[in-house]
Amino acid sequence: MTQRYAYLLLLVCLAVSAILPNRLEAQEREPYSIDQLVELLESGVFSDERIEMLVRRSCIDFRVDDEAARRLSAAGASSSLIASLRSQCVRLPSGFVDAVVVTPAELDVEVGATRILRAQAIAPDSTQVMGVVFEWTSADTAVAEVSSGGTVLAKAPGEVRIAATTQEGPSGTALVRVGAATRVEPEEMLEAEVAG
User: What does CATH list as the number for 99-179?
Assistant: First the structure.
């Protein structure tokens, strides 16, 4: 009886290991949903390292909040796998992000100075969506350019729109006005020191 049970279990494992890779290949790097990860974990076929590798290649389409962590843990995920999933790229489903708010909405800066813009993704229920990656772009890099983290470098006088765009499509902008750098004459500095 024990040998027969072991044989049946082996057949089931072989069948699952034959089916799941094909399903994974068919996914073609679409982000993994929490249901798919739970299914992989419950199958027991894939190691934590293999799941991490799959997620690194394809991202996930959910935020690893407390509820998601509970579901993953109940399916057999180790605490190290859950911690790793928290740091993986997130591509939220289309429509999950309703709007993007960039702050400050308007910014005055002198040539040569840098300022930091912040972006927030907003869900249809007006709550903030965490873990969203933004692509920052400048409409005119001759006036100001922006880094991948939202740091603006003012380069020449003028106005420019800086945009933060999500992978899902919605974007938000800020108006940046760049003015000529204020030059302080040596006489003005001397007068200020004497007056002080």
Answer: 2.60.40.1080
